[in-house]
Design goal:
With 289 residues, this protein is of the alpha+beta class. The protein has six helices and 19 strands. Strand 6 and strand 7 form a beta hairpin. The mean pLDDT is 95.
Length: 289
């Protein structure tokens, strides 16, 4: 069932870990926030503890993760936490952190999701506003595609293809619900190829990456001793990333999101195209049936 009222966390949620790219230790607290507050990040390690809204207009980089920034400070790798907010239909929260990168945890949104559910979710006394898709919107680039079509709920369908024996072609689709997200998507981990990790580390990135927080793929096998959580964990993680990226629209969608071979950069380009296509959607409050 779609939550039709705004929601926030019932009490503060605490998480800590390392940033996958920075390798730096970070402590994070998700705090309740009032209606129409949205999701905001607060850098308590900086003078005057500046805040930034998690919104499309704040994105400054999508090359390896989704990074938002303003007035010389950034918050990096926000997509897994944002996916948890989207998957649990949380509209309002203040995220305080003492470093610039969100902790990678186990490479999925599972730890964030579990911690939020343990703390509880508070329904608020204000209706939730949705983007309702009226006409298709599509963006394609170099064989990659992102599209939104009219649909009475929020469905997301994703297809990926790698010329690699471990991944090959994978597809997955689901109507987003709190239960479905928790069971089918939240625990899908980020992944990468061994040679890519070695290259990134050579140039000072992926300092916190390990077999504890990513699926690492060699030429013909997975290096993680425990293997995969699902046979198609890779495409499930792509859906997780998409949920995080599309949450930067600022409101939930009623429509069918179809994604093929996309990543953070094309997702972000699509969000910009979305706002140019004002005739293809409307915003409205949806009454509980």
């Amino acid at each position: 069932m779609i939550p039709y009222k705004q929601r926030t966390v019932a009490q503060p949620v605490h998480c800590s870990g390392i940033g996958v790219h920075s390798g730096k230790r970070v402590c994070l607290t998700v705090k309740p926030a009032p209606v129409n507050f949205g999701i905001r990040f607060k850098r308590i390690d900086l003078p005057e503890s500046p805040c930034i809204s998690a919104h499309l207009n704040s994105v400054v980089d999508t090359s390896m993760a989704t990074v938002i920034g303003h007035d010389g400070f950034i918050v990096s790798t926000i997509e897994h936490l944002m996916a948890s907010f989207a998957g649990l239909s949380i509209d309002n929260a203040l995220v305080e952190l003492d470093a610039y990168e969100i902790p990678i945890m186990d490479g999925s949104a599972g730890p964030f999701t579990a911690s939020i559910l343990e703390a509880g979710i508070q329904e608020q006394d204000s209706p939730k506003c949705f983007f309702v898709i009226k006409k298709p919107i599509e963006l394609s680039e170099n064989g990659k595609t992102v599209a939104l079509h009219p649909y009475p709920e929020f469905r997301i369908s994703c297809h990926i293809h790698y010329d690699h024996p471990v991944i090959q072609s994978q597809s997955f689709s689901l109507v987003l619900t709190e239960k479905g997200f928790g069971q089918e998507i939240a625990q899908a981990r980020t992944y990468g190829f061994l040679q890519e990790f070695e290259y990134l580390q050579l140039y000072g990135f992926a300092k916190g990456a390990s077999l504890e927080n990513a699926i690492v793929i060699d030429s013909d096998r997975i290096l993680n001793k425990d293997g995969l959580r699902w046979e198609n964990e890779f495409v499930r993680h792509k859906i997780l990333d998409c949920l995080g990226d599309f949450s930067l629209l600022g409101m939930p969608i009623l429509g069918h999101l179809k994604v093929s071979k996309s990543g953070h950069a094309l997702n972000h380009a699509f969000l910009k195209e979305f706002f140019k296509r004002r005739d293809s959607w409307e915003t409205c409050f949806v009454q509980r049936p």
